[in-house]
C-alpha cells in the first residue's frame, strides 16, 4: 500500500515537473517572440525614418553613392595586379584617405584633401631630411636628434593651431603634419628603406585625395557656397516673418485683418531662433566656400566672408526681437487703450521693417541691386520717427497735477499748460512704451543689415535691377512722394 502511494506521488511529481517545464518553455518562447517583434518594429521605424531622410533631401543619398564610387575606384589598387605591383601594400593609404577626407560639400572635401596632401608632403620631406641628418651624426646621436626634432616641430605645430587665421583654414593640415612627421621620424630609426616607404605613402595619399576631389566636383556637386547663400536668404525671410507676426500678435488683437491673423503662427513667430543659432554654420560654410572653384553665379573670389557679416547683423536684430517677444509675453500687460493709441504706428513700423528685410533677401537671391530699397528704407525711417514723436508725448500723460500757485498764473501760462492732463499709472504704460522703444531699436539694426547687404552688392558687383516701370518712371523710383516738394534725398541711414 505504501509502495502504491509512493508510485502515485512519483507520477504526480513527474506530471507537475512536465507541466512546469511546458510553462517555462512557453514563457521563454513568448519572451523571444516579444523581443523579436520589438526589434522588428524598431527596425521598421528606423527604415521609415531613413527613407524619409532620403526623400526629403535626395542629395544625402547621392552623397552616399559618391563615397561608394570613390572607395571602389581606389580599391582597384588592391584588386588590379598591375596597380598593386606599383604601390604594394601602401594602397591602403589611398582607401584611408577617401574614408577620412570625403565630406558632404565639395568645399569641405577640397579643404580636407588639400590640407592632407600639403601636410603629408611637407611632413614627409622634413622627416626624411631629419632622418638623413640624424643618420650622419652616428648611432649615439641619431635617436637624440630624431627625438628633439619631433619635440620641437610637434610643439610648434600644435601652438600654431591656436592662431585663429591658421586654425580656420589649415587646422586639419597641421594635425596631419604632426602625425606624419612623427611616424616618419620614429619609424625611420628602425626602417632601412625610409625614402621608398615615404614616397609610396605620399603618392597613394595624393591619389586618394585627387579621386575624392574629382568625384565630389563632377558627380552632382553640393557647394558649400550655395548652401551658405540659401541659409542667409532663408534666415532673412524668417526674421521678417517673425517680426511681422510679433507686432501683429501684440497690437492687432480682434481688429487685425484675416490675412494678418493667418500670418500669426508659432512657426513663423519663432523663426528668428534659427537666425540666433546659425553662427557656427555660417562661419564653417564660408570657410569651405573659399576653397571651391567658380560655380553657378559665384566667381572664384566671391566675397563669402561678407555673408558672415550679414549673419552677424541679423543676429543682432534677432536678439532685439527676442527681447521684444519676451516683453510682450511678460506678466505686466498694458491696458487696451494704450495699445490702441500706439497700435497703428507700431504695426506700420513692424510692417515696414519686414518689407525692408524681405527686399534684402530678394536682393541677395536675385544678385541684383534693388530699385525700391531706398524708398522702403525711407518709409521705415519715417514710421520710426512718428513712433518716436509719439513716445516723446508719453511723459505728459503721467505728469503730476499742477499746484494751485502755478494754476492761478493764467496770464503767463502756455496753451499746453492750460490743457488738461491725464494721469495714468506708470505700470500700465511701461510695457507698451518698452515695446515701442524696442521697435525703434530694431529699425536701427535693420539699417545695419542694409549697409552690409549693400557692401556685398558692391563687392560682388551686383548689377542694377532694371524693368519697364523703372525705365519709364526713373524719377519716381528715386524720390518719394513726401520728399518731391522738399527736394530732400530719399535715403537716410541715420538712426531715427
UniProtKB/TrEMBL annotation:
GO BP annotation list: malate transport; monoatomic ion transmembrane transport
Cellular-component GO terms for this entry: plant-type vacuole membrane
Keywords: Ion channel, Ion transport, Membrane, Transmembrane, Transmembrane helix, Transport
Subcellular location: Membrane
Polar residues bias spans: 477-486
Family: Belongs to the aromatic acid exporter (TC 2.A.85) family.
Protein name: Aluminum-activated malate transporter
The gene coding this protein: ALMT16
Amino acid at each position: 500500500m505504501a509502495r502504491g502511494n509512493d508510485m502515485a506521488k512519483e507520477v504526480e511529481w513527474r506530471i507537475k515537473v512536465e507541466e512546469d517545464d511546458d510553462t517555462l518553455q512557453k514563457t521563454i518562447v513568448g519572451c523571444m517572440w516579444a523581443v523579436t517583434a520589438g526589434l522588428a518594429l524598431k527596425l521598421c521605424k528606423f527604415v521609415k525614418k531613413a527613407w524619409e531622410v532620403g526623400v526629403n533631401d535626395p542629395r544625402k543619398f547621392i552623397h552616399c553613392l559618391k563615397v561608394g564610387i570613390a572607395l571602389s575606384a581606389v580599391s582597384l589598387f588592391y584588386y588590379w595586379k598591375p596597380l598593386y605591383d606599383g604601390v604594394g601594400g601602401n594602397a591602403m593609404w589611398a582607401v584611408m584617405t577617401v574614408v577620412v577626407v570625403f565630406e558632404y560639400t565639395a568645399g569641405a572635401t577640397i579643404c580636407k584633401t588639400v590640407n592632407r596632401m600639403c601636410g603629408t608632403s611637407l611632413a614627409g620631406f622634413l622627416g626624411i631630411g631629419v632622418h638623413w641628418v640624424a643618420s650622419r651624426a652616428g648611432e649615439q646621436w641619431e635617436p637624440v636628434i630624431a627625438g628633439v626634432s619631433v619635440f620641437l616641430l610637434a610643439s610648434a605645430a600644435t601652438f600654431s593651431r591656436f592662431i585663429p587665421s591658421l586654425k580656420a583654414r589649415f587646422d586639419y593640415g597641421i594635425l596631419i603634419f604632426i602625425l606624419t612627421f612623427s611616424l616618419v621620424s620614429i619609424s625611420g630609426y628602425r626602417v632601412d628603406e625610409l625614402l621608398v616607404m615615404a614616397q609610396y605613402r605620399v603618392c597613394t595619399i595624393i591619389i586618394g585625395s585627387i579621386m575624392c576631389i574629382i568625384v565630389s566636383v563632377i558627380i552632382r556637386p553640393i557647394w558649400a557656397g550655395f548652401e551658405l547663400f540659401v541659409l542667409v536668404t532663408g534666415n532673412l525671410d524668417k526674421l521678417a516673418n517673425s517680426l511681422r507676426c510679433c507686432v501683429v500678435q501684440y497690437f492687432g488683437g480682434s481688429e487685425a485683418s484675416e490675412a494678418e491673423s493667418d500670418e500669426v503662427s508659432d512657426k513663423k513667430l519663432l523663426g528668428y531662433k534659427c537666425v540666433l543659432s546659425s553662427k557656427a554654420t555660417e562661419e564653417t560654410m564660408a570657410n569651405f566656400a573659399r576653397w571651391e572653384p567658380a560655380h553657378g553665379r559665384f566667381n572664384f573670389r566671391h566675397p563669402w566672408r561678407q555673408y558672415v557679416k550679414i549673419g552677424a547683423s541679423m543676429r543682432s536684430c534677432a536678439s532685439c526681437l527676442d527681447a521684444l517677444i519676451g516683453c510682450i509675453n511678460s506678466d505686466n500687460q498694458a491696458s487696451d487703450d494704450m495699445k490702441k493709441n500706439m497700435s497703428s504706428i507700431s504695426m506700420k513700423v513692424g510692417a515696414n521693417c519686414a518689407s525692408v528685410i524681405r527686399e534684402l533677401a530678394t536682393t541677395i537671391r536675385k544678385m541684383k541691386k534693388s530699385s525700391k530699397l531706398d524708398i522702403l528704407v525711407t518709409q521705415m525711417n519715417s514710421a520710426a520717427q512718428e513712433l518716436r514723436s509719439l513716445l516723446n508725448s508719453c511723459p505728459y500723460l503721467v505728469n503730476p497735477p499742477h499746484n494751485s500757485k502755478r494754476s492761478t498764473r493764467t496770464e503767463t501760462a502756455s496753451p499746453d499748460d492750460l490743457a488738461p492732463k491725464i494721469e495714468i499709472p506708470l505700470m500700465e504704460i511701461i510695457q507698451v512704451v518698452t515695446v515701442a522703444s524696442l521697435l525703434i531699436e530694431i529699425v536701427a539694426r535693420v539699417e545695419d543689415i542694409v549697409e552690409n547687404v549693400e557692401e556685398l552688392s558692391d563687392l560682388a558687383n551686383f548689377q542694377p535691377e532694371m524693368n519697364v516701370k523703372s525705365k519709364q518712371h526713373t524719377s519716381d523710383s528715386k524720390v518719394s512722394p513726401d520728399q518731391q516738394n522738399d527736394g530732400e534725398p530719399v535715403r537716410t541711414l541715420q538712426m531715427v
